[in-house]
Every structure is written in structure tokens, then in C-alpha cells.
Amino acid sequence: MVVGELAQERDVVIIGGGPGGYSAAIRAAQLGLSVTLIEEGELGGVCLNKGCIPSKVFAHAAQKMADIPHLKDIGIDLENTGFQLGKLQNYKAKIITQLRQGVEALCKANRIEILRGHASFLAEDRIGVEAGDAFEVYRFRHAIIAVGASHVSPPTVSVDHERILNVDSIYSLETLPGHLLVYGNDYIALEAAMSFHAFGSQVSVISDDGTFGLDDTIAKELQRIWKKRKIKLYTRCQIERAESSLDCVAVTIRTAEGETATLEGSHLFVSCEKKANTNGLGIERLGMKTDENGFIQVNRQAQTSLSHIYAIGDVTGAPFLAVKAIKQGKAAAEAIAGQLVEVDLTFLPTVVHSIPPIASAGLTETEARRQYGAVRIGEFPLAGNGYASILGQKDGVIKVISDAATDVLLGVHIIGAGAVELISSGVLGLEMAAREEDFRFPFYPHPSGNEALLEAIEALRAQAIHLAPAKQGKKEDHTKGVTI
């Protein structure tokens, strides 16, 4: 190893080139700071190369597969339709390459220095970068840690990336699972389950509680959809043992009541817990504060316990969402540049690119009742929305929650076509402390899925036009509604 004799001076050093890291780099460059970005692997990080983007490529293809029956209904007859996993893998690789090249081009355009290698802190103002046989030392004024987190398998499951998979391997499969067992309680498990079901795999889902962290109404609707599509759901269960052979996986599950059963499938996908990628980073030399699970503690400016060093994204703990990393990255860059900023995760949206998609922001009904006591609930089934009927995508419901004392909106929860795009309206309203009237007053284009949000708001006071009076304000069958 060749060690640099002198420390090279840098203004802002960012460790990690994922969505948070490169967003921080670009924002800092926009603010006139000189930026050095250190990445050990590929730019874009796990999100672009293994996680967010590959899973959404699969979700996009799955939605197209799910649309085929409707295409026949409207006169588009597709003969000899089928699914070729190899072609989807080629498409995924092309998209990843294009997006990565786009990130590289943006960094170059913003005059961001990119260093390849493993970075570790040597002191509070020095960092070493190891690349092969070379080792260089850099002195920095500010640093941003964006190294992410890695998957940790449950103690009862050993991921082999052949029959037993996690998010790093499931979207690289070369053959379609005959029967995919899915174990998890988050959006990652939901996306994998519904994508592979659309491709033709038999799917069974094993979950600790079956709600996947969703509002109860949304979880109930999801379970109804799964029952209709013959996706088997095992709730309040944990995996006691998983064993793989040449052609199958045998999984022993234990229920909350202590009963056991054995399930067999061709593959098992596990949505794992995460641990911070801080091994070898050297933060222990700095006395940087971490929580009991090893995640770096930060304030609302993304500052660590050392005021000139920031941390963003998964390395700071849950929620493990790229949108959080991006927001923190921009805020860290702006704080370094002397701007007054903060990151408030109160209305951070959660989205699931499933079939149908799911999106939520704000409080669930249970949380709202616990915090506010008296609340109003408005629900509108997409079966009552005219545009959903046109699309042939009538599964789903929109639910809104407001404070009965002030009319202020507390939560928006959606399962159904257009949920991911529509949740932005909910987030904006929640951030602005909108009241019910603020959502009722504007015009909503007709016909569109947006009208379903309006009618959910109107249902708060039994004013929804396309919902029978007996259905308003009550938790009834979401498959029924009056359409126009």
C-alpha cells in the first residue's frame, strides 16, 4: 500500500454516492461549494443498482401484465401473450445504466470530484481513501456520511441468493419462481409479492401481523384483494426454520398461538432488517453518537454530534426511504452553506408500487384517535369513481382523517390506481395544515381519479355525491359504490 505523505485539502467531502449522497453533492455545488464525492461501488448506491429502481422496473412490468385482461375488454386482442424474465432483466440493466450515466453526467456538469475507494475517518478533520494499493489522506472542513445500511437476515433464515433471497438477489433471478414464499412486514415484501404474482408465480405471504404498517382500512382492503387473487396470507406468524434443497425451500412457521406448520415453495424471499454500514468507517475514533442499534444520531439539520460532520439516509436509521435521504442530503448541503434549514419527517409519505399501488401520509385512524380523541373519517371506494371504471381498475379505497374539533386534516391513506401520484396532494395539504374546506373548495378535473380524493373529503360530513347515504361515515364494503 502506498500512503500519501501530505493531506490534500477539501471543502466538502461526501462518503457514499447513493440518492442522498449525490443529491447532497449537487446541491452543495449549486451553492458554490467545492465537493468531493467518495464512492466504493457504483454511483446511485443500492437504491439505483439493486433496490428502488430494479423493484420498480419489475412493478412496472407487473402492472402491464395485470392490464392484459382489460385490454381485451376494450377491443385490443393480444395474441400469444407471455412473460420472458430474461428480456425484463435486459430492460432493467438498460434503465440502471442510463440512470447511472445520468448521475455521472450531472456530477461532471457540477464539477464534483469523484473518488473511487473505501473511506474511513482518521481524525475529526481527516479522512483516508483506500483504492487498491493506493491510500490518500484528505483534510476536510465539512463531511457528509451517506454510506447507507445493509440487510441482516433473521436468525432463523440463511440467505443463499439462490433459493433463499433478499432484495439484493430477488430482482436478479434468471428463472421465474413456481411458488414464491414471501416473509416480511413492509413495502418491500408487498412489492415483491404482487410483482411475481402478476408474472404468474404462485405467491404465499408470511407476516407478523398482516397490516404491513398500513392503516387498518387499507390493510383490510389489501387482504380482500389478495383473497380475490388467491394470494395466501399467513398472519401473526414467524419463521422458525428455513431449509433449501436443489429444487425447493421448506419453511416451518410458528403462529402466535404456538402452532407450527410447514410450507414448501420453489423460493423464499425475506425482507430483512437493516444495520448501518459503519464498520470500517472509523466513527468510533471520533466519539460520534449512535443509537443502541448502531445508527448515527442526527438533528433536524442532519448534523451528527460533531457539528461539522453530517449523516443522511439509511445510516441514520428508519424510515429506510430514499426520499428521506434525498431531503436530508439537500438540507445538509444547505446547512453547510450557512442556510437555515430543517428536515421534518412528520408527513414523510410511504408508497408501495404494488398492484394496486398504496400510498399514505400522516396519522392512521388508530394514531389519530389516540392523539386527538374525536376524529372524523371519510372513505370513498374507487368502485364509485368513473375514471377508475374506465381504466378497469376499481379495486381500492381512499381514506381521509380529520380532527373533529378543528377540521384540520390528519392523515391521507390510499390504495388504488394513481395512489403514488395522488398522495402528493395529501402531503401538501398536511404540510400546510389544511382544513376540510381547503380540500373541498378547489376544482377537481372530471373524469379523473382525483375526484375520489374529493369525495373522500366530502364523505367526512356525509356529502359525497357518488356514495349512498348509508355508506358514508361507516366502514362498509369498499367494493360497492355508485359511478357516473
UniProtKB/TrEMBL annotation:
NAD(+) binds at residues 184-191. Residues 349-456 form the Pyridine nucleotide-disulphide oxidoreductase dimerisation domain. Disulfide bonds join 47-52. FAD binds at residues 56, 314. It holds the Pfam family Pyr_redox_2. It is an enzyme of class 1 (oxidoreductase). PROSITE patterns: PYRIDINE_REDOX_1. GO terms for biological process: 2-oxoglutarate metabolic process. Gene3D superfamilies: 3.30.390.30, FAD/NAD(P)-binding domain. Keywords: Disulfide bond, FAD, Flavoprotein, NAD, Nucleotide-binding, Oxidoreductase, Redox-active center. GO terms for cellular component: cytoplasm. Its EC number is 1.8.1.4. GO terms for molecular function: dihydrolipoyl dehydrogenase (NADH) activity; flavin adenine dinucleotide binding. The active site is at 446 (proton acceptor). Its cofactor is FAD. It catalyses: N(6)-[(R)-dihydrolipoyl]-L-lysyl-[protein] + NAD(+) = N(6)-[(R)-lipoyl]-L-lysyl-[protein] + NADH + H(+). InterPro entries: Class-I_Pyr_Nuc-Dis_Oxidored (IPR050151), FAD/NAD-bd_sf (IPR036188), FAD/NAD-binding_dom (IPR023753), FAD/NAD-linked_Rdtase_dimer_sf (IPR016156), Lipoamide_DH (IPR006258), Pyr_nuc-diS_OxRdtase (IPR001100), Pyr_nucl-diS_OxRdtase_dimer (IPR004099), Pyr_OxRdtase_I_AS (IPR012999). The active site is a redox-active disulfide bond. Binds 1 FAD per subunit. The keyword Cell inner membrane does not apply. NCBIfam families: lipoamide_DH. Residues 11-329 form the FAD/NAD(P)-binding domain. Belongs to the class-I pyridine nucleotide-disulfide oxidoreductase family. This is Dihydrolipoyl dehydrogenase.
